[in-house]
Specification:
The complex is a heterodimer of chains A (about 350) and B (about 325). Chain A has about 350 residues and is α/β, with parallel strands linked by helices. Chain A has helices at about 5-10, 70-75, 100-105, 125-135, 140-155, 170-185, 200-220, 230-235, 255-260, 265-270, 280-285, 315-320, and strands at about 20-35, 40-55, 60, 85-90, 90-95, 110, 190-195, 220-225, 240-245, 245-255, 325, 330. Chain A is globular and about 70 Å long. The termini of chain A are far apart. The model of chain A has no long low-confidence stretch (mean pLDDT about 90). In chain B, the strands form 2 sheets. In chain B, strands 6-7-8-3-9-10-12-11 form an 8-stranded mixed beta sheet, sandwiched between helices. The chains are: A alpha/beta (about 350), B alpha/beta (about 325).
Chain lengths: ~350, ~325
């Protein structure tokens, strides 16, 4: 195709298009073994994911440890290089971007990390931590920089007078607020929240969830919210995607996913989550899964969940079920879905 | 009711640090009856784990500075280390949060699971291995003869926790203390382990103390629950009553602050404001008062004792003890 024609065909991105659009995404990690440390196999952390994230929504991403949810989040914002597939951000293909082009997009993306104890440099002051993205992207300097840092601290509910303090002087919840202020510094459109509350005390989690929701409406943010706690994900998300061994098994609006899960994995995940009400909890019927998650180095043939699936048939080993529609916005990858 | 199996009376355990004295457990009393499952909930630093470790006399570097731990008529805090070794692992067993670090990586799993009966009951290797294999089978480890020869790193997290439970049960202890046994595990594996603990309780009649920060786990597992905050029990009672009508503002606010899977509408959560207390400089009076939306003048002055409030519950709160009901928007 001549170049001019290709440009003409490409329609400009509008806010009604997906903000992030991922197709066939794979991120594999090499496994080295033997004396020569040759690559002998790959961990299929993300193994063929199609996903759209709409502007302004919170897409929840749940799954058990090792399912590839963090790797997917990191690959989308290009902290990891994809092995195959494409990532579009605001309609532009950023899969193979480098240098200045990628840096320009990075101003639009940010990440909030799980462990507020490990993700802040203990030798930097709060002001330096929050101000670093401003320096990298040349967004502010001098008095403007200082004012911006104070604003950011204020917006996340920290005393602006704390700029010269060090991370060790803060509690876990306050440190997570510092991490959030840093993520907001570049004034991003899209934030990957990677288990942002898992390391916090129960009584602090609600404070941070409410803060994230407040910031979303205030700054018109789009979140990819990664967590293993389905109750939290359902609370904060518009839509929820369930991941298992590198693949999306089901995706649907949160309430619908909870009321009527179609994939047996989602069903068992939901039934495994305890509800803090003794009367409800004792009356619940459980679908307890047997065994452990299979190895992502050698995922099972066909449907990857079949080794633990109570509904698996011989057919499930032969063919991989596609992600298919079960009504509006509800997709599941299963040959023998739940009713 | 029969005499309790295990009884703690005004237990106090403290840590002496350069910054000051940490009153990790500050006057905890509880009773555990044969065959029951008692839940202890609290956040990090509430003293729930140190309480359990003090029962096992594993609280070092902390020191038990007061109170009693009565088991079968004896005060465990007064026993010599040699006498304590007869109790620990034999009469009272404990399983820990992190199954990754609580097994020794250089010994085969079957050898470690059989250790309590070799040590306590003087069984020989073959017989101990036999009981280890049958226990591994009971806790749901497939091909137990083969897996007993494997090293811990060859086990997954859930399987290691099963092995830890098997080890705890080889001596058929009277009391099992499970300290956050599922916190490090994925939810589907958590469901398996909780199911196993229920089964153990039914089959062996082992009285269990389940320590957790997860209110959902308590709701499904425990007949009675105790809520700890800053080293003290702030509320206790039958789980059903405590969850339906909490009598301490901390329990009340905690239950309202967590998102529930079965919530129908999206409403902003109602968080507990403020920070967990600094254990070296505890607030005066009730340690929860700076974060409490019901506080009265007296709360910052006097420490409330755990007192009966209502028919079945106990609460350490001046507000509910004065007859005020906990309500809010």
């Amino acid at each position: 195709m001549p170049k001019a024609e290709a440009v003409q065909l490409k329609r400009a991105w509008t806010t009604s298009d997906p903000l992030v659009s991922v197709r066939g995404l794979k991120t594999w990690f090499p496994v080295a073994s033997g004396v020569l440390q040759r690559t002998t196999a790959h961990v299929h952390a993300v193994d063929g994911v199609d996903l759209d994230i709409k502007k302004g929504e919170t897409l929840g991403l749940v799954g058990e440890s090792g399912c590839g949810k963090s790797t997917l989040g990191r690959t989308i914002i290009r902290l990891l290089d994809p092995t195959a597939g494409t990532i579009q951000f605001k309609g532009e293909d950023i899969t193979h971007q480098h240098g200045a082009a990628l840096r320009a997009h990075r101003r639009d993306m940010a990440m909030i990390f799980q462990d507020p104890y490990a993700s802040l440099d203990p030798r930097q002051t709060v002001g330096d931590i929050v101000g670093e993205p401003l320096d990298i992207h040349h967004l502010a300097s001098g008095p403007a920089r200082r004012a911006r840092i104070r604003d950011l601290l204020d917006v996340v509910g920290l005393n602006p007078g704390f700029v010269d303090r060090y991370p060790h002087e803060f509690s876990g919840g306050q440190r997570q607020r510092i991490g959030i202020a840093r993520a907001l510094a570049v004034d991003p459109t899209f934030i990957v929240c990677d288990e942002p509350i898992s390391a916090l005390d129960v009584s602090i989690q609600a404070q941070i969830i409410n803060l994230l929701e407040k910031l979303q409406s205030k700054f018109d943010l789009t979140y990819l919210f990664i967590a293993h706690d389905l109750s939290v994900v359902k609370h904060i998300s518009n839509r929820v995607a369930v991941m298992y061994l590198g693949k999306i098994m089901e995706i649907a609006p949160g309430q619908q996913l909870y009321r009527r899960p179609r994939h047996p994995y989602t069903g068992s995940l939901l039934s495994a989550i305890p509800i803090p009400d003794p009367l409800i909890e004792r009356a619940r019927e459980r679908m307890i899964l047997q065994g452990d998650v299979a190895s992502p180095v050698n995922p099972p043939s066909g449907c990857r969940f079949r080794t633990r699936c109570p509904r698996a048939q011989p057919h499930c080993a032969e063919e991989e079920p596609p992600l298919e529609g079960f009504g509006a916005e509800h997709l599941a990858a299963c040959f023998y879905p739940l009713d | 009711m029969a005499a309790p199996l295990l009884e703690l009376h005004d237990l106090k355990t403290q840590f002496f640090t350069p910054e000051g004295v940490v009153k990790a457990v500050d006057g905890v009393s509880l009773e555990l009856h044969a065959g029951e499952t008692l839940g202890i909930v609290g956040e990090s630093g509430s003293g729930k784990s140190v309480t359990a470790l003090s029962v096992m006399r594993l609280q070092r570097p902390g020191k038990i500075v007061g109170g009693e731990v009565r088991f079968k008529g004896r005060d465990l805090t007064k026993l010599s280390e040699v006498e304590m070794r007869e109790i620990r692992g034999q009469e009272i067993a404990m399983i820990f949060q992190d199954p990754m670090t609580s097994l020794n990586p250089v010994f085969r799993t079957g050898w470690q699971v059989g250790e309590p009966v070799r040590l306590h009951q003087g069984w020989d290797k073959t017989r101990a291995l036999g009981v280890a294999v049958s226990m591994l089978n009971k806790v749901g480890i497939p091909a137990p003869e083969k897996r007993a020869r494997d090293y811990p790193h060859q086990f997954s997290g859930g399987m290691r926790q099963r092995a830890m439970i098997a080890m705890g049960l080889t001596t058929t202890p009277k009391v099992l203390i499970a300290d956050e046994p599922t916190t490090a595990l994925d939810v589907t594996i958590q469901a398996q382990i909780l199911d196993l603990l229920r089964q153990v309780n039914r089959e062996f009649g082992t009285a269990t103390i389940l320590i957790t920060h997860n209110l959902g786990v308590v709701a499904g597992m425990c007949e009675r629950v105790m809520v700890m905050y800053a080293g003290r029990i702030v509320e206790s009672g039958p789980t059903v009553d405590v969850f339906a009508h909490p009598k301490h503002p901390y329990t009340w606010s905690l239950l309202r602050s967590i998102p529930r899977l079965d919530e129908e509408r999206h409403e902003p959560l109602k968080p507990i404001e403020g920070l967990p207390p600094d254990l070296i400089n505890l607030p005066s009076g009730c340690a929860f008062h700076p974060r409490c939306s019901f506080k009265m003048e007296r709360c910052s002055r006097d420490v409330p004792a755990l007192t009966r409030v209502g028919d079945t519950q106990f609460a350490a709160c001046w507000v509910t003890q004065s007859g005020v009901e906990l309500k809010g928007a």
